[in-house]
Design goal:
single chain, about 425 residues, alpha+beta, FAD/NAD(P)-binding domain, 2 domains, 7-stranded mixed β-sheet, 13 helices, binds flavin-adenine dinucleotide
């Protein structure tokens, strides 16, 4: 007989990965406890997709999906084949929450509310009679002969046949993800690849960005350079903030920016008009200047630039704002073209874990069996979610990784792999 402190599976961390792991293990008949240090489950999940939860990505091809995680992505093949994008969409739909495909193949719940996704998971856990311990921080674990036999909380201990660690990374620590699991894993013999912020806003040194804070640019291209060599390039949407730049293309590039900054200075080159080459842009500017003949230069850029950007570009160009457009020289036009196509930004640092959407690094994948999520060091230990050395771009990839690895870990813990 199992007492109140003994379970088949103990899942630590009630985020997306932990809830899915606990739910799946319980669905297969296990007596499961889910231990969460916050007063609620899924605190971070509720913030995802600006509260709308971009819970997966419309990419059904496993290989293509996994490629988004870089070299480590292959680790996900098995998890995605067991519980991939289609299965996740079907899962939430079977609980009454339909997915809706939005721009860039991002999938959100139909009603645009992350709470709907959390509600499904809570129901799933209730159906499986999972015991949920709230306000319960796991402090340490005890192990013997390559097996954990207990985890310690502040005022009690929990024993289980299997343990699944889903404590997430170090990003947004205010939601409970403070990297606790890394320490236990290390004590249990696992290697931790240094956790660094990814999908992170970037601080830049130029003062003018503050003047345009809040401005969002669509369909722009951003290139990353170090020592004159192009190291990354993205196309899409970005945002100016009071400290620098953010938005999807900046966030997706941030991991590379952070890595390169360790070696020396880097530059970002923003192309505001990627659809027009230098020649075509020159023609377009000439046309616009012609339209505004007799007017002051500062009033001639409205059709070419967002309003808040105009004073900045004028100042950077060095052209007298009150100059009559008829007298703009070829040289001055060239300066403008250069600013439109090669506007420089200088990253100084990333904003850090406090505001990074995911953590790159984590438990070294070579020490985990990708077919089961079981540790190769400790027989009855499994990992799932962001604690693994896996991070994808924005777009629903990271939550899908949590659903897939969580489901597989929960299932494997019960099936005894
Ligand atoms: C602002 C923001 C927006 C995002 N938007 C998206 C999006 O739209 N789409 C997407 O795919 N991804 C998004 N992400 C990323 C996604 O939220 C994470 O990848 C995901 O939440 C990771 O899930 P997890 O279960 O591994 O860990 P977490 O969600 O971090 O959950 C870990 C849980 O473990 C608990 N815990 C930690 N230590 C202990 C302990 N010692 N004892 C007990 N419990 C503990 C924590 O309190 C926490 O509840 C976003 C992230 C942020 C910050």
């Amino acid at each position: 007989m199992k007492d109140n402190n003994s379970f088949d599976s103990a899942v630590i961390g009630g985020g997306p990965a932990g809830m899915m792991a606990a739910g799946r293990a319980a669905e297969l008949g296990a007596k499961v406890v889910l231990i969460e240090k916050n007063e609620i489950l899924g605190k971070k999940l509720l913030l995802t997709g600006k509260g709308r939860c971009n819970f997966t990505h419309k990419e059904f091809n496993i290989k293509k999906f996994a490629e988004k995680f870089g070299r480590n992505g292959r680790f996900l093949y098995r998890a995605l084949s067991v519980f991939g994008v289609k299965e996740v969409i079907d899962f939430f739909e079977s609980w009454g929450v339909k997915g809706k495909v939005e721009q860039g193949d991002r999938i959100f719940p139909e009603n645009g509310n992350a709470q709907d996704i959390l509600n499904v998971l809570v129901k799933y856990l209730a159906e499986g009679r999972v015991t949920i311990l709230y306000n319960s921080k796991v402090i340490s674990s005890k192990h013997r002969n390559r097996k954990i036999f207990q985890v310690l909380l502040r005022d009690r201990h929990i024993s289980a046949s299997k343990y699944i660690i889903c404590t997430g990374g170090k990003s947004y620590p205010q939601t409970g993800s403070t990297g606790d699991g890394y320490q236990w894993a290390e004590q249990l013999g696992h290697t931790i690849i240094e956790p660094v912020p990814a999908l992170n806003p970037v601080k830049t040194s130029e003062d003018w960005v503050r003047e345009v804070q809040g401005l969002s640019l669509k369909n722009v291209s951003l290139k990353l350079f170090q020592n004159g060599k192009k190291c990354d390039e993205r196309f899409g949407e970005m945002l100016f903030t009071h400290f620098g730049v953010s938005g999807p293309i900046v966030m997706d590039m941030s991991k590379n920016i952070g890595t390169l900054l360790k070696n020396g200075p880097v530059k970002l080159i923003l192309d505001l008009k990627p659809a027009l080459d230098f020649k075509k842009l020159d023609k377009r500017i000439q046309r616009d200047l012609e339209k505004f003949k007799g007017r002051m230069f500062k009033n001639s850029l409205k059709e070419l630039l967002p309003l808040s950007m105009i004073p900045v570009i004028i100042r950077l160009s060095g052209i007298e704002p009150s100059k009559q457009v008829d007298y703009i020289t070829r040289e001055e036009r060239n300066k403008l073209i250069h600013l439109f196509k090669e506007l420089e930004l200088t990253p100084t640092e990333l904003l850090g874990f406090k505001w990074s959407v995911v953590t790159s690094g984590g438990i070294a994948l070579k020490e985990i069996n990708p077919n089961t999520m079981c540790s190769k060091k400790i027989e009855n230990l499994y990992f799932a979610g962001e604690i693994l050395d896996l991070d994808g771009p924005s777009g629903g990839y990271n939550l899908q990784e949590c659903w897939s690895t969580g489901y597989l870990a929960g299932e494997s813990a019960v099936k005894g792999h």
